[in-house]
Write a structure and sequence with these properties.
This protein has a single domain, classed as 3-Layer(aba) Sandwich (Rossmann fold), CATH 3.40.50. Helices cover 55% and strands 13% of the residues. The chain contains eight helices and five strands. Strands 2-3-1-4-5 form a five-stranded parallel sheet, with helices on both faces. Helix 1 packs across helix 8. The mean pLDDT is 96. The structure holds shikimate-3-phosphate (S3P).
Length: 174
């Protein structure tokens, strides 16, 4: 397919898991932006945060996204913060069909409570702090996510339903 699809949304929304399974259904190559950065730089995301700081990570993230979007045929899952820094969202809007995988705050908090250790921004938070972090960060980030071409708001979203919604949208705009 001669297009790119970019999945945006908060950490814990399932962008990578859903994207990996939806991509082949659409004839697209799946790319996880965090994984792509880790391969390219030979540092894990937590290492990039702890050794160089968040701003350096954001610059790497933007550069990697720009590089990837020079090619077509990919379904790219980007990290929760990626669309909200520099000119990333305008770039995503220009070079892809963007999809906001929107989950309720409650589901996000529950999911992150089980996987926070893998994520540098939530690793040290207590349950109460995590709840506050999700609430406050989501408020700040939602205006970026909400610009996506397609918003899918379903706590029980499956890869098949995601692929179907993307296919419909691509057909409608072609
Ligand atoms: C981040 C989300 C992570 C990763 C990094 C920062 C964020 O990706 O890019 O830890 O700022 O929300 P996921 O959205 O896949 O967790």
């Amino acid at each position: 397919m001669e297009t790119n699809v970019v999945l945006v949304g908060f950490s814990g929304a399932g962008k990578s898991t859903l994207g990996k399974q939806a991509a082949p259904l659409l004839g697209l190559r799946f790319v996880d932006l965090d994984h792509y950065i880790e391969q390219k730089l030979q540092y894990s995301v937590p290492q990039l945060f702890s050794q160089f700081g968040e701003l350096v990570f954001r610059k790497c993230e933007y550069d990697a996204l720009q590089e990837l979007l020079e090619e077509d045929g990919q379904l790219i899952a980007v990290g929760g913060g990626a669309p909200c820094y520099a000119q990333a969202m305008p770039l995503i809007l220009e070079r892809s069909l963007s999809v906001y995988v929107k989950l309720s705050e409650e589901v996000l908090v529950n999911r992150l409570a089980h996987s926070k250790k893998r994520r540098p921004l939530t690793v040290d938070l207590s349950d109460d702090e995590l709840r506050r972090y999700v609430h406050e960060t989501l408020q700040r980030r939602a205006p970026y996510y909400e610009q996506a071409h397609l918003i899918i708001e379903r706590d029980d979203l499956t890869p098949e339903a995601l692929a179907e919604a993307i296919r419909k949208r691509l057909n409608a705009s072609s």
